[in-house]
Automatic annotation (TrEMBL), chain A:
This is Protein phosphatase 1 regulatory subunit 19. The keyword Cytoplasm applies. It comes from Perca flavescens (American yellow perch). One of its GO terms (molecular function) is chromatin binding. Belongs to the RNA polymerase II subunit 5-mediating protein family. Gene3D superfamilies: 1.10.287.370. Plays a central role in maintaining S6K1 signaling and BAD phosphorylation under normal growth conditions thereby protecting cells from potential deleterious effects of sustained S6K1 signaling. The URI1-PPP1CC complex acts as a central component of a negative feedback mechanism that counteracts excessive S6K1 survival signaling to BAD in response to growth factors. Mediates inhibition of PPP1CC phosphatase activity in mitochondria. Coordinates the regulation of nutrient-sensitive gene expression availability in a mTOR-dependent manner. Residues 216-225, 392-412 have a biased composition (Basic and acidic residues). One of its GO terms (cellular component) is nucleus. Pfam families: Prefoldin (PF02996). It comes from the Eukaryota. One of its GO terms (biological process) is negative regulation of transcription by RNA polymerase II. InterPro entries: Prefoldin, Prefoldin_subunit_alpha, RNA_pol_II_subunit5-mediator.
UniProtKB/TrEMBL annotation, chain B:
Keywords: Chaperone, Coiled coil. Residues 80-114 form a coiled coil. The keyword Zinc does not apply. This is Prefoldin subunit 6.
């Protein structure tokens, strides 16, 4: 209360002073207006006199003679006036002209008066406001001043700022943490420690998510294994063979279709597959059970890639997440390879075509064969040079991931860009025949692992979208497939 | 310590007051020029009212000197130009002075704080 009283007093003093100043201005204006009114009256009198002066030729007047005396005299030249214009300028003029000058002066005076009256009104209003303020602030009860202490606000403001700042920082940190996990894998203790220290809760949440994903994957893998292996393999093999025979020779574009060029290599050299797959052949054995030789070759490379990928995954990126989630996988490396391999089939466009075959037995067969040939190509590429094959797979996976899985799997999208740049170089490498298995693999692995869970939802879409997905690798086959597809749709 | 600061403060205050005087002087000069400007404007307008038959005089000292009307108009316009130029000059001078006085004020306030601190220290020491 004491403070309030002081504040009021200070406030009142300010208001009072404001009022006083305003009143001063008003008074000044009033005095000036009086002055100008007097001037205006003088001019009016002068004007009157000038009007009547030339009426007579001469006037008898008392002429002032010095300060004390007057003497009688006559005023002649009644129509002749010397007017002081100002700044010591004089002009001899007739009474009429003098009147004009006087009118001119009157205008000026009127203008001044108007201005002064305006300003006076303005300041009178201000005085009234100041008076009201005074009465309001002085009179207690009716009105209450709302005052807030600013001292406490600073702290609150700073708190808010800090919070705001934290969010942007924390968000990138989280991403960085995830990246670090992926990049550093289990190898770097520093990264692990950072992750743990920075965002333990989130880490754990992330781990739980991954676990769920893995479970889903496993289920899907089982399902897909049963379905895909049984139906797709045989049909796909036959169709692939046909297509290879038809499509491979005409398509010579090296730049466009590295996969095509690579095909012959792959077909001819199972040895390449073996080279690549030597490490993984053990795991591939399960896949190699397929009846046809071609099939085994084509499939094997895929498996090889997958296996290598997984191996690399496990070896290089034994991440905390993966460690926990993929314990089963680690234990059952072969099983994983199987599941992934089959998953790959599903994930790749080839798988989709297989689905087509199943759905539409009569007409779509050529399509299937083309697509399958691609898949074969890919597989072949993988055989000759695993890196190239892996790249293709990655591509497909990436495309899918971008189109369908972006929302669901941020990791896939993150990983895919890293994998993309590798493609061109890897292709060339593939041609050269050199095999860089492990480098491309790690990038590919995450796609593979992550992609499967999204598959079930995507399958239907994929059937529809197969054409766009296929487009990038082979343009010619696409067009054919598109037309056919259009016809089919129309029918 | 405090005494030295006090001396400085005094010198600064004197400078500041001098500056204020200058400011007020130039301010009043400018106001005079303003009134002259309005007066001359009126003269010019009223000269325009007159015809060639009218004779114009200029009061120089105690005598009225007859002047040609056109000549008078020319001199009045010249005078107006001159006054306008003077007003602008004063305007710049005033701005300059205001800046300087602002600086002086800052220096003064800082000096005052120093002085007060020095006094407080002295008191504490005593």
């Amino acid at each position: 209360m004491a403070e309030k009283g002081k504040m009021n007093i200070g406030h009142l003093g300010g208001v009072a002073r404001l009022r006083e100043e305003n009143e001063k201005v008003v008074k000044d204006c009033e005095s000036r207006i009086q002055h100008w009114q007097k001037v205006s009256g003088d001019y009016e009198a002068l004007n009157e006199r000038l009007k009547t002066l030339p009426d007579q030729l001469s006037y008898d007047i008392m002429v002032p003679f010095g300060p004390l005396a007057f003497m009688p005299g006559k005023l002649v030249h009644t129509n002749e006036v010397t007017a002081l214009l100002g700044d010591n300028w004089f002009a001899k003029c007739s009474a009429k002209q003098a009147q004009k000058v006087v009118d001119h002066r009157m205008k000026y005076v009127k203008h001044e008066l108007d201005d002064l009256s305006k300003t006076m009104k303005n300041f009178e209003a201000r005085v009234g406001l100041a008076k009201d303020l005074e009465t309001i602030s002085s009179s207690k009860g009716d009105y209450v001043d709302i005052r807030e202490d600013t001292g406490n606000d600073d702290a609150a403001v700073t708190k808010g700022k800090q919070r705001i700042a934290r969010k942007p920082h924390s968000m990138p940190k989280m991403d960085a943490v995830l990246d670090l996990k992926e990049e550093n894998g289990g190898g770097s203790g520093d990264g692990g420690s950072r992750n743990g220290t920075l965002t333990e809760e989130e880490l754990w949440a992330r781990l739980d998510e991954l676990e769920k994903l893995e479970e889903l994957q496993d289920e899907q893998d089982r399902l897909s294994d049963n379905a895909d292996v049984n139906g797709e393999d045989t049909s796909s093999v036959s169709s692939e063979e046909e297509k290879e025979g038809d499509a491979a020779p005409p398509v010579n574009g090296l730049s466009l279709k590295p996969s095509w060029t690579s095909r012959p290599h792959s077909e001819a050299p199972p040895s390449a597959d073996r080279k690549a797959g030597e490490d993984d052949e053990e795991e591939q054995e399960e896949g190699s059970c397929l009846p046809t030789i071609f099939f085994s070759h084509t499939i094997e490379p895929k498996k090889v890639r997958i296996n290598t990928g997984k191996n690399t995954m496990f070896k290089f990126s034994e991440r905390k997440e993966q460690k926990e989630h993929s314990k089963k996988k680690k234990k059952n490396g072969h099983n994983n390879g199987h599941s992934h391999h089959e998953l790959h089939k599903i994930t790749t466009p080839v798988d989709i075509y297989r689905l087509f075959v199943d759905v539409k037995n009569g007409e779509p067969v050529p399509r299937k064969s083309i697509l399958k040939s691609r898949s074969r190509e890919n597989s072949v590429c993988s055989d000759t040079s695993e890196s190239s094959a892996a790249d293709f797979d990655e591509r497909r996976v990436i495309g899918r991931s971008f189109s369908h899985d972006e929302a669901t799997h941020s990791d896939t999208s993150d990983d895919s860009p890293t994998g993309v740049p590798l493609h061109p170089a890897s292709r060339f490498e593939a041609f050269s025949g050199t095999v860089v298995e492990k480098e491309p693999m790690p990038s590919a692995v995450p796609h593979l692992t992550i992609a499967p869970p999204a598959l079930p939802t995507i399958l239907e879409r994929k059937q529809e979208e197969v054409a766009p997905d296929v487009v990038p690798p082979q343009q010619a086959p696409k067009r054919v497939s598109k037309f056919k597809a259009a016809r089919l749709q129309q029918v | 310590m405090a005494e030295a600061i006090q001396k400085k403060l005094k010198a600064e205050v004197e400078k500041y007051t001098q500056m204020q005087k200058d400011v007020s002087k130039s301010m009043s000069a400018r106001q005079k020029l303003e009134t002259q400007l309005t007066e001359n404007n009126i003269v010019k307008e009223e000269l325009d009212l007159l015809g060639s038959t009218n004779t114009v005089y200029k009061l120089i000292g105690p005598v009225l000197v007859k002047q040609d009307l056109d000549e008078a108009k020319a001199t009045v316009t010249k005078r107006l130009e001159y006054i306008n130029g003077e007003i602008q000059r004063y305007e710049t001078v005033l701005k300059d002075m205001e800046k300087k006085s602002e600086q002086h004020r800052e220096v003064l306030s800082s000096l005052q704080q120093e002085f007060q601190r020095a006094q407080g220290l002295a008191v504490g020491k005593v």
